[in-house]
Amino acid sequence: MEQKFKRGEAVDLAILSRNFDGDYCLGRDSKVLDVIKDKELCDLKQEVWIKSVGRSKETGEIYASVTGKYYDNPAFECVWLR
Length: 82
Hints:
Largest sheet: 4 strands, antiparallel
Mean pLDDT: 94
Structural class: mainly beta
Order of helices and strands: HEEHEEEEE
Radius of gyration: 12 Å
Oligomer: single chain
Distance between the termini: 14 Å
Number of domains: 1
Strand order of the largest sheet: 2-6-5-7
Shape: globular
Strand content: 25-35%
Low-confidence stretches: none
Number of helices: 2
């Protein structure tokens, strides 16, 4: 994980705030999707890989999870999946 981060192949989400479910809040700006495109996502501090990223259809907020919960979730548009 650390090696991928050092090579620029992974993005560390550890500095981001987390919501009540423990998911990482990426905000509403769709430009963040350009940053994570073609990258692995992780939390280096917790040493976990991110499995899915979803945009709320209701609020437009983008969240990242260590589970695949945003895949095939009717309340979210899955925008990234590992």
